[in-house]
Design goal:
The chain is mostly helical and about 190 residues long. It is about 75% helix and about 0% strand.
Length: about 190
Amino acid sequence: MENSLLGIYLNDQLAAGVLWRETARRAQRNNDGSDLGDALARVATAISEDVEMFEQIMQRLGVRRNPVKTALAVAAERGGRLKPNGRLRSYSPLSRFAELEFLTYGIEGKKVLWQNLRDCARLGERLPDINFAELIARAQRQRDELEPFRLAAGAAALGEAPGDGAELRRSSGGVRARLLGERTSH
């Protein structure tokens, strides 16, 4: 029974990882050619590597992948593109903010996932070569990389006079400086 429940949990988490990976890739394409796009490219690559690591863990435990769950995750990401964003046919500041916020939820959830696998499922003992502490730290680095952009996107989307997000296409140093109230040399 334990292995059965762990298998269900792992397949659910794999589907979530696939959903966040696809969302990160879409967000990167939507912001290509900007500092945000560069940050999203790095995070999307890291999420893809995390999904691969997760699949390796499942394989080592003898847990079969549930292709229906991962297919549904991909379909959910595609369906999420249909969400109204305040603009009929174009990417909006709300789209950018919603993507970054969703990725933040996923990254935070991934940190908890690695902790659960290490501590609750006791995989830290069963798979001692997997450095769960580093996987948790890696997730935190992903969160830290996106956080200044998420805050700026939230201000652009939810502020009194939302802009078109042009400030996110400028240097990330400028975005961080504005968030921290520092002056930039522009």
